[in-house]
């Protein structure tokens, strides 16, 4: 009897505990489910965070690769750049650190003299490169430790004088295609209303596209800059090929527009302003033309204008570079005469372009180069000797005269004229 009463008490006790156990079990189940859900949410957030970080890292890597590509380097697989690997396969932590600092994202160019002035030693972000990098199309960069930004107020225009008497609009046989006899890279500072003209020797040895008889591009060659025009059709293609060669020569500097005309037009323009008086800068012409002795003042009329700017002794090496002094003297004197006429008659420049339009090839709209010409003529300071720059380099004689440019000097000119130090 006592035993039965004990069992009844145990059963009653268990019945009283059953709701508590059910409650505790429910709490434990809820906690377990909640824990799994929280952990799942944590994993999901971690995964999303990782995916976002990966996306950002990929964008940073792609941006870095693009900078290398824009700098004249190919960063794809098998390129040999950065230990032969794609940048995306490099140390990701280093790239993340690179991308976290705006200054670290910039291309850092170092350049030091090599055994040859045309082959200085370049490195990009500490990595040596064999070819000269084309970095001057970048809006911002470091060069030998100094921080530079592109001066967007300074525009670059290429003016070409082609050694032909015919209009460049006329069709011609491929064998009759001219060469660039005068090459001028004009830097127009629209903010300061200042013009700097870089005279580039026609014998400058540089990279350019080489074409076949039908003007198909075969490869990139290294030859006299004057031949870049000859590689084309004497029209738009020649303009593109020459513009590209000049851009490469100046480290990838973008050219905002070009204009090419036959040198035979000089006499017509000279007569249009009523002749130009010059002071002969040297004695290079005196033997052939006694009136052109050094220091003499000569009134250039008719064909004398073309003779003054073009003549050279073809039997003597280096005379194409020597005559650049005369071209500079003539440009200064011609502008002075044109300005005086423009002040008397505001229609002078538009009338002058009636002569030019039928002879030139350009990738600029007429309104663009007309406005540009008027703006340059009306600038605060007229052209002077200080307005002109000629790159340093070595004259070397093989079968032909060759001018090998000092690339460190060219880089310095580009940075001084088209960039500003931060």
Short précis:
Helices cover 40% and strands 22% of the residues. The chain has helices at 2-70, 92-100, 227-230, 236-249, 266-272, 304-310, 319-322, 324-344, 348-357, 366-377, 407-418, and strands at 108-112, 121-124, 127-129, 140-143, 146-150, 154-162, 180-189, 194-199, 205-211, 217-224, 257-262, 276-279, 297-300, 361-362, 388-389, 393-397, 401-405, 419-421.
Report on the architecture of this protein:
There is one protein chain. The protein is α+β, with helices and mostly antiparallel strands. The chain folds into 2 domains: 49-135, no CATH class; 150-421, Aminopeptidase (3-Layer(aba) Sandwich). Helices cover 40% and strands 22% of the residues. It has 11 helices and 18 strands. A 6-stranded mixed beta sheet has the order 3-2-1-4-5-18, covered by helices on one side. A hairpin with a 5-residue loop joins strand 9 and strand 10 (217-224). Helix 1 (2-70) crosses helix 2 (92-100) and helix 6 (304-310) crosses helix 8. The protein is globular.
What order do the strands of the largest sheet run in, or round the barrel if closed? 3-2-1-4-5-18
Reported for the largest beta sheet, the result is: 6 strands, mixed
Q: Let me know the CATH homologous superfamily of the largest domain.
A: LCP protein
Strand % is 15-25%
Query: Quick one: overall form?
Result: globular
Intertermini distance: 104 Å
Would you tell me the structural class of the helices and strands?
A: alpha+beta
Q: Can you give the mean pLDDT?
A: 82
- What percent of residues adopt helix (DSSP H or I)? 40-55%
Strands, total number? 18
Number of helices: 11
What is the number of independent domains? 2
What is the third-level CATH name, the topology of the largest domain? Aminopeptidase
**Segments where pLDDT lies below 50 for 5+ residues?**
1-17, 19-48, 71-92
**Rg calc:** 35 Å
CATH architecture of the largest domain: 3-Layer(aba) Sandwich
Order of helices and strands: HHEEEEEEEEEEHHEHEEHHHHEHEEEHE
The top-level CATH class of the largest domain is: Alpha Beta
């Amino acid at each position: 009897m006592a035993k039965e009463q004990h069992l009844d008490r145990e059963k009653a006790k268990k019945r009283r505990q059953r709701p508590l156990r059910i409650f505790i079990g429910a709490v434990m189940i809820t906690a377990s489910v909640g824990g799994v859900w929280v952990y799942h949410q944590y994993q999901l957030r971690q995964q999303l965070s990782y995916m976002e970080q990966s996306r950002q890292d990929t964008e940073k890597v792609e941006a870095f690769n693009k900078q290398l590509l824009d700098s004249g380097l190919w960063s794809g697989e098998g390129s040999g750049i950065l230990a032969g690997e794609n940048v995306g396969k490099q140390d990701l932590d280093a790239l993340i650190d690179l991308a976290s600092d705006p200054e670290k994202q910039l291309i850092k160019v170092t350049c030091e003299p090599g055994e040859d002035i045309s082959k200085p030693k370049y490195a990009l972000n500490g990595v040596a490169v064999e070819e000269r990098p084309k970095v001057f199309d970048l809006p911002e960069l470091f060069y030998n430790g100094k921080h530079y930004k592109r001066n967007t107020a300074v525009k670059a225009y290429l003016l070409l004088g082609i050694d032909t008497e015919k209009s460049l609009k006329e069709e011609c046989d491929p064998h009759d295609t001219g060469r660039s006899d005068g090459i001028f890279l004009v830097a127009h500072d629209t903010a300061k209303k200042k013009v700097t003209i870089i005279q580039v020797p026609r014998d400058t040895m540089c990279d350019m596209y080489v074409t076949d008889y039908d003007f198909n591009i075969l490869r990139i060659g290294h030859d006299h800059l004057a031949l870049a025009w000859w590689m084309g059709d004497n029209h738009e293609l020649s303009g593109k090929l020459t513009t590209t060669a000049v851009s490469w020569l100046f480290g990838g500097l973008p050219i905002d527009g070009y204009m090419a005309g036959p040198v035979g037009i000089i006499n017509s323009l000279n007569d249009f302003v009523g002749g130009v008086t010059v002071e002969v800068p040297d004695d290079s012409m005196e033997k052939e033309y006694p009136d052109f002795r050094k220091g003499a003042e000569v009134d250039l009329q008719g064909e004398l204008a073309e003779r003054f700017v073009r003549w050279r002794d073809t039997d003597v090496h280096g005379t194409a570079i020597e005559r650049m002094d005369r071209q500079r003297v003539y440009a200064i004197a011609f502008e002075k005469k044109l300005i005086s006429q423009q002040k008397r008659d505001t229609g002078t420049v538009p009338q002058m372009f009636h002569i030019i339009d039928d002879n030139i090839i350009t990738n600029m709209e007429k309104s663009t180069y007309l406005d540009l010409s008027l703006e340059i003529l009306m600038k605060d300071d007229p052209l002077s000797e200080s307005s002109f720059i000629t790159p340093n380099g070595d004259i070397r004689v093989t079968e032909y005269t060759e001018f090998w440019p000092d690339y460190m000097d060219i880089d310095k000119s580009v940075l001084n004229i088209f960039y500003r130090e931060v």
